[in-house]
Every structure is written in C-alpha cells, then in structure tokens.
Amino acid sequence: MVGKKRSASRVANEKTASKKGSVKKAARDKKNSRLKQTERDRHVDMALEAAQVGIWEWHMKTGKVRWSKIVYRLFGATKKEFKGDLASYHKLVHPDDRENLTQAIQKSVANKEIYFVQHRVIWPDGTVKWVEASGNVVWDAKGNPIKLTGTAQDITLKKQIELEREDWKTRYEIITASSGQVIYDYDLASGKIVWSGLINEVLGYSPDEMYDIVEWVDLIHPQDRSGAMQELESAEKALTEYDIQYRIKTKSGEYSTVHDRGIFLTDPAGKAYRMLGTMQDITQQVVAEQQLDQSNRFRESIENAIPGVLYVFDVKGRQNIYANQNIASALGYTNEEIKQFGSNIIGALVHPDDLFKIPAWTNENFGTVKETEYRLKTRNGKWRWFLGRDTVFQRDDEGNVLQIVGMAQDITERKEAEDQVFESEESYRTLFNSVEEAIYIQDFDGRFVDVNEGACKMYGYARHELLGQSPAFLSAEGRNDFNAVADKIAKAANGAPQKLEFWGKKKNGEEFLKEVQITKGSYFGKEILIATARDITERKKIEEELRESEQRFRTLQQASFGGIAIHDKGIIIDCNQGLCDITGYSREELVGSNGLLLITDEWREHVMEKILAGYEKPYDVEGIRKDGTCFSLEVQAKNIPYQGKMIRVTEFRDITERKLTEIKVMEQNAKLLAITEDLKRKNEQLEEFTQIVSHNLRSPVGNILTLLSFLESSDKEEEKAEYLSLLKESGLTTQQTLHELNEVLKIKQNKNIPRQELDFEKVLQHVKSMLSAKITEVSATVECDFTHAPSIHYPNIYLESIFLNLLSNSLKYIHSDRKPVIFFKTFKSSSSIILEVQDNGLGINLDRYGHQVFKLHKTFHKHPESRGIGLFMIKNQIEALGGEISIASQVDKGTTIFVNFNKYNSDAAEDSDNSVGG
Amino acid sequence: MQPKTPIIALVDDDKVFQLTTLRTIQAAKLTDRILQFENGEEALSFLKMHAAETENLPDYIFLDINMPFVDGWMFLEDFATLKMGLKKDISIYMVSSSIDPRDVNRAKGNKNVQEYIIKPVSREKLIQLLKRAAA
Fold first, then answer.
1. pLDDT, tens digit, for every residue of A602-616?
2. Structure ipTM
C-alpha cells in the first residue's frame, strides 16, 4: 500500500518537472516571435508612414474605433473631434457621403467581401478632402463578425484629376459626336450655362445673353416650354439622356426648331450637379421632313386607293414589267426584288398546286378577262390567296397577246372564312350523323334534301337512295293518311312545329311506327323543313300499357265516393267524376286549373303550406263550389312519383253531412247534459224526500212503537198517563209531518199550476198587511225596488208563500242592537228574474250550517218560533217551477236570500220534462 | 272492587227517546248518572266546561243525528278537535231513526263513533249495549 502511494507521487512530481520545462520553452519562443513581430511592425509602420497610409480598427461588439496617427491627420482631427466611436467618425465625413459609407460597411459584412469606400472629409477648418478606406472583416469561429480593420489614405489629388479628366472626356465626346452644334455646360447648383461660341450663329445671341437657365426657359416657345422643362426635370431625376426638340426664339424674333441633347454628370453620391449638352438647329430639316411627309402621304393615299396589286405582265418574256407599291404591302417585296425574280416570277411566287390555274394567253381579244384564284408566297414565306383578274393590254399585229394588265386582290380572309364554313359544314355533318334519331332535311314539297345516318339506319337505305325521295317512299302501304301528312308539312312550312305519327316501311319490308316532328329551319341559306323521326313501336306498347293502367286507375277513381285529383303543386293533372260531383265543375274545367280554386280564400294559404310540406294526413278546410256555395271539406293527399317528379293524389271528401251531424251531436250532448243536470236535481230532491221520510217520519212512528211497549209494560198510572200524552204528541207530529210531506208532494206534482202576471209590488203589499202586527211589534222598515223587474208570470200562491216566508224569517231573526230593515228588490239577469231579500238581522254561519238551511225541520236559532218548515217549503215551490234559491249571510250582519225564478226554465229543461213525462 | 258507575249522556231533541231511554236505564239499574242534552250545542258546551273533570265527564254518549241547531254530524266535527283536551275516553254511539245508507256509512266512517244504532231502540238492545259498554 505504502509503496504504491509513493510511486504514484513520484510520477506526479516527474510530470510537474516536465511541465515546468515546456513552459520555459514556450516563453522563449514567444519572446523571439515578439521580437520578430515588433521588428516587422516597425517596417510596416515606416512603410505606412512613408505612404501616408493610416490604420484603423472598429470593434463591432464594443463599438470602439481606433485610429493610427495618420488617420487623425487624414481627417484633420484631434482626439477632441474624434471620440473613438462610429458616431464622431461619421460627423467628420461629408454629409453626402455618410450614407455611402454605411452601405459599404453593411455590404462588406453581409457579403464577406473587402471593404472599400471613397468619401469626402470635412476638416474642422472647412477644407474638403477625399479619403479612400479599405479593410477586412475579422470573423470569430462561429462566423460572427468581430471587427472591421483596414487602411485609409488621402486621395484628394487623385480624385480631382479623375473628376477633371472625366469632365473633359465627356466634353470631348460630345464635341466629336455632334460637331457643328452648340455646346453648353449647365451648372445645376448655380443655374449658370456656359455656351460655345456657335450660339451666336445659331440663335443670334452672344453666350452672355443666355447666361443662365432662366434666360433659356424664357426663350422657349410657350407651347413647348413646359414639355422641355418637364423632360429636363425627369431626365435629371432618372439621370437619363435629355433628348428633346423644341422651338426657341432667335435674336431676330423668329422661332427656330432645335434638337437639344444633354447628359448629366453626377457626384459620387449619385447626384447630378452638371449637365453637358448640344443644341442643333433643325428648322430646315423639319420643314423638309414635313414636305416629304406630305408627298409621301399623297402617294400612299393614291396607292391605297387602288385596291390590290396592279401589274403589267409580259406574256412572251414571262416576266413582270410593272407592279405598283401595293406589292410591298401585300407580299412584302420591293420593286427591286420583284425585278430580280425575272422570268421565274410565276414559278417563284405562285403556289405549286395553283400553277395549273394560271391562265395562258394566246390571241384573245381586248376586253377578255380571265379570273383566277391562286396563292402567292409572301416575302416572309407565308401563302396568301389572291384573286387575279387579267385582261389583254397589248397584242402584236397577228393578234397574239403580248402583255396583259391585271390586278390581284388579297382574298386570304375570304378564303379562310370559306374554309371555316367548310369546316363548320363538316362538323355539322358529324353532329347530324351522330344524332341517333333519324333526321331529314326536306324542301317544302317534302322531298329529302339531306338525311343523316340515323335515317339511313332506321330504314336500311343508303343516303343516296333516300335523297330526292318523298315521305311516300318510306310509307307502309295504306297505313298513313297522306292528306294529313301534307297538311302537317304545309303547317310546318308556315312556321308552326308539327308532330305526327307515321308508319314506316324498311327496305326489308318490315313495318314500324314512328313519331315525326317537323320544324321549319334553314339549311345553307335555304328555307327547309327539318323532320326528326323516332321509332316509337316500343314506346307505343308502353303507352298502351300505361293507358290501361290509367284506365284502371280512372275506374278506381270513379268508383271512389270522394273526389280525387292528381295535381302538381296545385295544378290539376287529372280528376275523377267524384270531384266534379262535389264541386259542380266539369272534368274539362278542372283539369289544368288550379285546385286551390276549390278552396275558399281564407284556407288557400293553409292548403298551399300543406302541399309544399308534402303533408299526408287528413285535414279539414272549407271548400267552394262552382256556384259559390261553401262546404266543409276534408282533404287528404299522398305524394307519388309521376314522370320524374313528385305529384300529389288528393282525395276531397264533402263532410257537410258529417259536420252537420257533429253539430247535432253537440246539440244533443248539450241537451243530454241539461237533462242529466235536471235529473240530478230531481234525484237530489228525491234523496231529500227519502231523508225526510227517514228522519221526520220514521222517528215519530218509532217513538209511538216504543211508547206503546213502555205503556204495556208500565204498571204505574202516572207513567201510563205520561206515555199516553207522549203518544198523542207523537201522533200529532206524525200527522203534521205527513201533512207537510203531502204539501211538498203536491208542489212537486203540481207543475202545471196556473200562472198569472203578478205585480211584485202588490204581492209585497199583501204580505206586509198579513204580517203588519209583527212589523209594528219589531218596528221594522220594509223597503223595495221592483223597477228593474216589476212583474212575473208565476203562480200567485207560490209567490205569496215565498214573500211571506222570507219576510217572516227576516222579522223573526232580528238583531237586538238595531232597527230591522228588510229590503226587497227584483232585477233581470239574462233571461231570468231574480228576487233579492236583504235584512240586517242575526245572520247565520253558513260554513257551519249552510248544508241544512233549506232542509225540513231545521232551525239554527234557539228561537221559539223556529219550526224549520218555511224555507224548505218555498225551496220546493221554487224548484218545482225550475227556479233556484240560495243564501248569503254573515253572522251579526244580516242575511240575503236570492231567488232565481227561472234558472232552469230553459228550453232544454222543458224538453227534458217532456221527454221524461213521455 | 266494584266497577265505577258509568256516566251516560243522551244527546237528542226527541223527548220520547230521552224519556224511554232514561226509564230503561233506571229500570235496569245500569247507572243513575245520566246527562240529558236537547242538541249538540248543549252537549258540546258541557264537555268544554268539564273537560278536565273525569268525575263529571260522560263515559258514553248516545248521539242523535237529526237535531235543530247543532246536529249530530256537527257535534262529531267539533268533538274531533275537542277530544284532545278531554281527561276521559268517551265512547259515542250514534242513535238515529235514519235508515238512509248514506247516514249509516258516514257514521261508520267516523272513528269516534263506536256503533250506529237505528231507532227505535228496544229495551233489550239498550240493556245489552250498556252492559257491554260497562264491562
């Protein structure tokens, strides 16, 4: 373990030692190289100093700019003006060149190319110097620019020489290019123009008289002035050549036309600062040109007036002697070139296929015209069609034609149009034949002018066999009515398209039925008839089947009780007799008309909605007949596909009867309801009667039996006497009750008790007189108001009984705290007369006792006079005559009794009485 | 120990019923404590007045239906609410001359009614009833 450790440490020491050694060596090397470096640097510095080349460096990250002493010198700056950054560097650069400088830097960095720029420097004292800088971008390993470093030197002198040389070069070029012209040198900044001496000759001015741009502008003809100035402006902007003609006033006051051409010289920033140019008087030239122009126009117009190429041709020498100018425009050849063709002119120009057409001349007379259509080759190698009309121009003594004169007109366009016609005829025929149906083009006599392949195929004939034939040729013997056919053809010729069926006979003798449509048309400019035929043997068969099925359908429709219509969005396509019966229209009237006419206005929209929605359930609407009467209508429709669209088969059912029945049923129901009500009331009355018997009659009878048994078993005389007395009492009670019940039964049975017109007022007076003692005793006030219903048709004893009971009740249950006031009032409500009797008495708790108010022997007050018979009795009286009695009351406030005399006295109630009675 | 003598209340406007029942009870020596009321109103005010007095409250009530003012049905309605405050369980027998099935059913439907007895009530029936009740 120890040994190992020691050896490891020794190795480490050895390593340290060797490291120390290598460091020494590196330091020695570095020193050597540094010596070499400074030595080299000194050489470089000396060289740079000698060449006045400065070194600069710009760290892009820190933004610091370092200059060598020479650079400071070049910029005429000290550390005061130059702060060691880009901004203060820029400040020293001429403003016009700063942009240039920035771009050069960007360009160098972006394209990784050498940095090179020439720019002006303004020294603090205002001196302008030219500096040329060049350098390289230093990149790091990742390719990011670190710094830009390079040299700078003064090039002011070089630049001046250069500019001057360029200046002179330009001047020289202009002079040589346009000798004899006025030369000018225009300084843009000052506006001064320096003219060459020639200006005196040309415009009559001395160079001093037109010393600046304002003078020049003033002399330009007013009409040309703005044009000349605009051109100058745009040329300066775009740095293009200034080239314009304008009129300028000469010293003598006349205008000369001058051609002015100039170029701009630019500073390094690309700005124009000088213009050099020439000015030439072209007045004479313009006049000459104008004259030439006029004569040319005249000549051209003459030549243009002659249509086509005019020529004279030597028949013997087989060459052209003369051709007018049109040959150039027509074929593109010059007269010279035409001459060069010599005797070969026809062979050279005429299309080989047309050579045979070129007429030969022998001894034709003057005036003989020969017309030919032929193609000629144009100078650019294309063929054009010409119509040549030649006539004899010269003959020899023997009459042989020597020369002809002719005119050739370009008819290429016409020819092309003809070709197109031909092509369209071709395409027409293709189309004509591609139609499967048979098509015949017929003249008005019916003869076949043309037929298509379909027609040939249909009959088995070739086209030529059919042309010129008439329809009779294709007819199956004896099966067609040719008078009718002729009639149809005549009508079609008059412009009315016709349709007919025709029995055809094929070449092989087979007969078939076809449908023919004939319309008027035009065929290559002629009026003709176009007949299209279709073999309908098969279709006829299907139609026949369809007709049968329709027949079946129709039969079914007719058999149906309701009306049936087949319609398409309302328009009736077909209908049955049933619909006619319902609506009063004939079938002819209905078919084709709108089915909505059968519906009353207010329902039409509703029906249309159903139609559009394809509604298929039955619904009720109101129908209207032809005679304008309305009726209840039930409509139900089914959508069915028919000939590719959806149509509706609608059934119309006249439901007037049903509706009437419905109303009757409803009426009957109402009656039944009334009867039921009546029966219910009657039943209630019967139940009440049962109760009366049960309580009021069984009770005393039961008592009699009990008392009798007690009487029998008793041996004490006192007791016996007591029982006997009670027995007597019970007997009387029974008798009384029986009497009362008898009264009630009488009331119930005696419905036809005679009635008379009764005055409420009189009845009340009578009752008041009967109870006058009691009224006086309690000092009651009885008031009344019968003005709204003064009288009633009613049995006298009942009305008296009612008044008597109500008044006596009110007088009975008076409130001790106040003076009794009883108020009688009548009024009419609908068809009823109502009596209202109001008192201010004790009142009654109706919640508690309401159910027994009008019951027999019910009393609600511990009152000696209460017997509980009055209200029960009058209730029976009132009800027996179809009335009703009710009560409203408040304890300690008073009671109001309402009597509705004829509540149930409706017809229905009376009917029910009759029906029950019968 | 001898069973306590029951108290019987008769609620009926029928004088004959009152008398005959009274005589029957007395003859049978069933009890000598009989309360007589002419209508429901009187009986109800008695019960209200003596609600806490077990020695005065009746053990049995013979109740008629058809009475003036407060009838048997109205009595039963009020009794249903009054019952909670009573110190004693009271058995009610409805005694009526009505053979109307509606009355019979209505009485049977009332849980406070022990039995519906149709008048006239024979002496034997009354004795049997009272004996059974007293047992």
1. 998 888 888 888 888
2. 0.81
